[in-house]
Hints:
2 helices
Amino acid sequence: MRPRTILHMLLILAIARGVSTARALTQEELAAKLQAAGYTQVSDIKSTAEGTTAKAVKNGKHVRLVIDSSGQIKEQK
């Protein structure tokens, strides 16, 4: 098989498997996303094993947040 044909086949397989071209959000982009979701005073953004964590305030209440790789925001108790 020619190298170009192999490359095309690999590309088709990658697309068929749903290879993601998504990239991680920067801290500024993540803070903006959280602010758009109603959180203020976003701080202490860290990457951890459970996802990205942050501290923020919502409706006057201090919360700890976990943002998973799909962008879901979850408040931790």
